[in-house]
Amino acid sequence: MSARAALLVLTLSLLLPSCAGYQLGASKPTPLAQVSVIHVEMVDNQTQVPRAAAYTTNALADALTRDGTYRLGTADSSDARLATTIHTIEYEQVRSSPLDSLASVELAMIVELEWRIIDSNNPVRILDHGESVGRTSFFAAPNLATARQTAITDAVRRATEELVARIANGF
């Protein structure tokens, strides 16, 4: 019987330390520990790209809903407000035509967002802030304007997912 007890103690002593780093529940960053409801404000667009603010606002709401760490709320019922600005949207040539190096075949779009989480009870207090970048590539189709408009939704989605990962997990 004592050999079984010793084996049980040895087994438990080897298995329990491997679980020491795990925690149950959310892993919110420390400044946002008391926040459970966030109000997503309409995104401020400092670029000349039409409808970029609406795409970004919708992508933020979708990403927060999918993540589930925070609930969405109105300005009056929220613990914090998420204020976001589209700082820049840039294009880079990824691939050019083999016959003409100035003619782009594939382009990359980079969307940079600046964001702040503001305490709803004290609007002067900024709980967290940062920048998020979304990048996507697209082919320069015969209609470049349509290709750019289609690509912006993907670039914005990637930037907002990075933002939500940062405020939900701290990294």
- Overall shape: flat
Summarize the helix and strand pattern as letters.
HEEHEEEEH
Low-confidence stretches: none
Main β sheet profile? 6 strands, mixed
Number of strands: 6
Q: Compute the gyration radius: what is it?
A: 23 Å
- How far apart the termini lie comes to 49 Å
Strand content: 25-35%
Helical content stands at 25-40%
Structural class by secondary-structure content: alpha/beta
Number of helices: 3
Mean pLDDT: 88
Give a summary of the structure in a few sentences.
This protein has 171 residues and is an alpha/beta fold.
Description of the structure:
This protein is α/β, with parallel strands linked by helices. It has helices at about 1-15, 50-65, 145-170; strands at about 35-40, 45, 70, 80-95, 105-120, 125-140. Strands 1, 2, 3, 4, 5 and 6 form a 6-stranded mixed sheet that branches. Helix 2 (about 50-65) packs parallel to helix 3 (about 145-170). The chain is flat and about 80 Å long. The model has no long low-confidence stretch (mean pLDDT about 90).
